[in-house]
Amino acid sequence: MVAKKSGKRLNLTAVLDLNEASALREKLLSFRGSGLSIDASGVERIGALCAQVLMSAEKTWAQDQQPFTFSQVSDAFQKTMQLVGVNIDHLLAKEIRQ
């Protein structure tokens, strides 16, 4: 799923910890109703709660039949998602899939 040109883009902050979970949820909800491309290239640390918020958003976008992708991800983001048991390979833009 690739975000349409009319879709929105969200750049994630470097630290996505417990304190950022509510803010992340609100940011995501503000984009609901349109395709969303997420840039996680600057993420240095992500906690399990923010990972849950992102995966919940992915399910919401799927139910809304809207595209939801990660355009870029940092190594730290990808490794942490794998450590918490979340496979995001199907959400990666074609250009960055391995």
From TrEMBL:
Signal peptide: none
Organism classification: Bacteria, Pseudomonadati, Pseudomonadota, Alphaproteobacteria, Hyphomicrobiales
Protein name: STAS domain-containing protein
InterPro entries for the chain: MlaB-like_STAS (IPR058548), STAS_dom_sf (IPR036513)
Gene3D superfamilies: STAS domain
Annotated organism of origin: Rhizobium croatiense
Residue intervals of the MlaB-like STAS domain: 10-86
